[in-house]
Amino acid sequence: MKKLLLIDTTWPINSRSDRFRLSLMKKYAVIVSAWNRGANNNTICKENFYVLEDDIKYGNRFRKLISLPKFILHCLRVAKKENIEVIFASHWDSLICACLIKLLYKKNIKIIYDCLDLPTSHNKLILKVLNFIETFCLRYTSLTIFASRFYVSLYNSKINSVVFENYPSKSISNSYIKPEWRDLIENIKKDKRKIISWIGVVRYPNILSNLLAAIEKLDVNLFVFGDGPSLDYLKELTKNKKLCNKVHFFGRYQQQDLAYIYEQTDYVWAAYPTLDYNSIYAISNKYFESNLFKTVPIFSKKTKMAENLETFNNVLIVDEYNIEAVTNNIRDALDAGVSDCKFKKYEPDLFWEEQETKLFEALSSHGLLHNC
Question: 144 near 160, Cβ under 8 Å?
């Protein structure tokens, strides 16, 4: 088998990268190079995992940028030690690492780029630089994987590409395990309030603030599953607003917990800041998971994801920047009993494992599986 290096600038690696890792292990000997930027360097060593321990913390973009050369050197050392033939770059910052390894170490290394998110910055000059760097790196990329069908129109049609979105794994629908915090949830639900859940990385403080302002005026509970750079901010804001009786934190969850989480949830918050155009074109995990588990999603009205969903009575479309509108939209949905209506699916269920053939065909057609 060819040796493939999967580069991810987070630790643990994001769930999409891990699903790719499991799929690619069917065709490659997969090595992982990751970056633990958390304050607590307590990485559990695993075979075929090389994790750079750091202490710059997540959410600090400037410190990440100036520390990136150290991570690039780490990846270069791993590539040399393992005699890597193919690199899978998760996200555009990993693509920079992959291209430098190709240019500085081994010209015949093949690069697969997972375009998980679009390069983004509120600073227009920085954004131009990032777009230039990505475009330059794409010249050395054998295959680009788009995580959203809406990304395709933003890139040169001449690049080799395939759309492979954040389809849920069959394992999350087949497994139903009550987590250790199930008793706490069942106790909270005795008050009969409807549940709005935030599921995933806790970020976007301005949106979290708006959501909390809406929760303050509604007779609902907010469940927060996950952690992230804005978790402490949200906890402090909850405390300051004296909403501890309505906002409940459950920390990180496992993929096998999702069926239970969605069963306990009436509305899933998936309205992210559309001033960041990445949010306009992306398709979140919640898009597929809400459809799979028949739970009402709350999407931003300016997103491509929401464009064709306004006719579905089980989808809530909001302006995430307008607190009054968000409050009224949710209140109207509560009054109408939207979450109690029969759920109408907005697209057929697609599973990661069922789409693997499409992925392998794309890899093969671009010479990435030869001699495996």
Answer: yes
Query: Which CATH superfamily does the domain covering 3-166+352-365 fall into?
Result: Glycogen Phosphorylase B; (3.40.50.2000)
Task: Name residue, tokens 């580069």.
Answer: 7
Extract the tokens encoding 307: 């464009």
pLDDT at residue number 372: 41
| Token pair listed for 371 | 């001699």
Strand ranges of the sheet holding 296-300, from the earlier edge strand across to the other edge: 247-251, 220-225, 194-199, 267-270, 296-300, 316-318
Nearest of 33, 51, 27, 31 to residue 41 by alpha carbon: 51
Strands (E), 296-343: 296-300, 316-318
Closest CA to 345 of 271, 307, 294, 287: 294
Dist. CA 244–CA 290, nearest whole Å = 26
Residue 65 C-alpha from the chain's centroid: 20
Return d(Cα 17, Cα 94) in angstroms, integer: 12
Task: Return the amino acid letter for 76.
Answer: L
Domain 171-340: assigned CATH number = 3.40.50.2000
Whole-number pLDDT of residue 58:
66
DSSP 116: -
Give the C-alpha separation, 101 to 79, whole Å: 8
Average pLDDT rounded to a whole number, residues 267-281: 93
**Alpha-carbon distance 334 to 346, whole Å?**
21
Burial of 5 (0-12, 13-18, 19+ CB in 10 A): buried
For 216-226, what is the mean pLDDT? Answer: 96
Q: How far is residue 314's CA from residue 328's CA, in Å, rounded to a whole number?
A: 16
Task: Spell out the domain ranges in the chain.
Answer: 3-166+352-365, 171-340
pLDDT digits (tens, 9 = 90+) for 69-105: 999 999 999 999 999 999 999 999 999 999 999 999 8
Query: pLDDT, tens digit, for every residue of 342-353?
Result: 999 999 999 999
**Tokens at 104, concatenated:** 């500085």
- Cα gap 312→287, rounded to integer Å: 13
Q: For residue 54, what pLDDT is reported?
A: 81
Same CATH fold, 171-340 and 3-166+352-365? yes
Tokens at 122, concatenated: 């509120």
Q: What is the mean pLDDT of the chain?
A: 91
In angstroms, the Cα distances linking 69 to 72, 86, 95, 280, 361 are 5, 21, 13, 31, 34
DSSP reduced 3-state for 166: coil
